[in-house]
Design goal:
Order of helices and strands of chain A: EEEEEEEEEEE
Strand content of chain B: over 45%
Strand content of chain A: over 45%
Distance between the termini of chain B: 37 Å
Oligomer: heterodimer
Shape of chain B: globular
Helix content of chain A: under 10%
Radius of gyration of chain A: 13 Å
Structural class of chain A: mainly beta
Largest sheet of chain B: 6 strands, mixed
Largest interface: A-B, 24 and 21 residues
Number of helices of chain A: 0
Largest sheet of chain A: 7 strands, mixed
Radius of gyration of chain B: 13 Å
Distance between the termini of chain A: 33 Å
């Protein structure tokens, strides 16, 4: 499968715990995006990388959230001291940054904070 | 005010019907426009890009009116498999980050 992959697909955690999600983009794509989607809403932009550089962060990304893309390939999103309001689907997308700029989404990681 | 606004629906239509969705966006600097489709508990997938001249892909027609900041999607001859949420999407700058509407749910009944 050469699409965007995300792990884990589901994560249940207790409030206050830290969680980390991983995204593997399509191999030749240099841009990688993180979005968050809650029930009944469209995805909301969190942050994006061009290669290893994190170029923009949404104000939604509080200081409890951190994202990395250390070698310009896979990316991780960490949430520290999780809160119930963090429960959502976390989606990763990638694009080549040329041509149509179509973003290809991964299947998402569904986080439930109890 | 949300940057991209859509009627949440649901639109409940019989097979074979024609259905139209509308969307408005608030930022006149928006550069690119799309319709994405999202099935329940799945990731969004690009349905079609939207151009000022309008564009058609089979049973799907998209229109953009920059002056009114309005985007539409027309689905002809609805199929059961068209049942999904349709997301109106714009991007505004060189980051190409996507700004999504809340989605319009379509239910096509037999």
């Amino acid at each position: 499968d050469t699409g965007v992959s995300q792990n884990p697909r589901h994560k249940i955690t207790k409030r206050g715990q830290n969680v980390t999600f991983r995204c593997d983009p399509i191999s030749e794509h240099n841009r990688l995006y993180w979005y968050r989607q809650t029930l009944g809403q469209g995805p909301e932009f969190l942050t994006y990388f061009q290669n290893e550089a994190q170029l923009e962060k949404s104000r939604l990304l509080s200081d409890r959230f951190s994202a990395e893309r250390p070698k310009g390939s896979f990316s991780t999103l960490e949430i520290q001291r999780t809160e119930q309001g963090d429960s959502a689907m976390y989606l990763c997308a990638s694009t080549s940054g040329t041509g149509s700029y179509e973003q290809y989404f991964g299947p998402g990681t569904r986080l439930t904070v109890t | 005010r949300k940057e991209v606004e859509q009627d949440p629906g649901p639109f409940n239509v019989p097979e074979g019907a024609t259905v139209a969705f509308n969307c408005t966006y608030s930022n006149s600097a928006s550069q690119s426009f799309f319709w994405y489709r999202q099935d329940c508990r799945k990731e969004p997938k690009l349905l079609m890009s939207v151009y000022s001249s309008g564009n058609e892909d089979g049973r799907f027609t998209a229109q953009l009116n920059r002056a009114s900041q309005y985007i539409s999607l027309l689905i002809r001859d609805s199929k059961l498999s068209d049942s999904a949420t349709y997301l109106c999407v714009v991007n505004m700058d060189s980051s190409y980050k996507l700004i999504f509407g809340s989605g319009t749910r379509l239910l096509v009944r037999p």
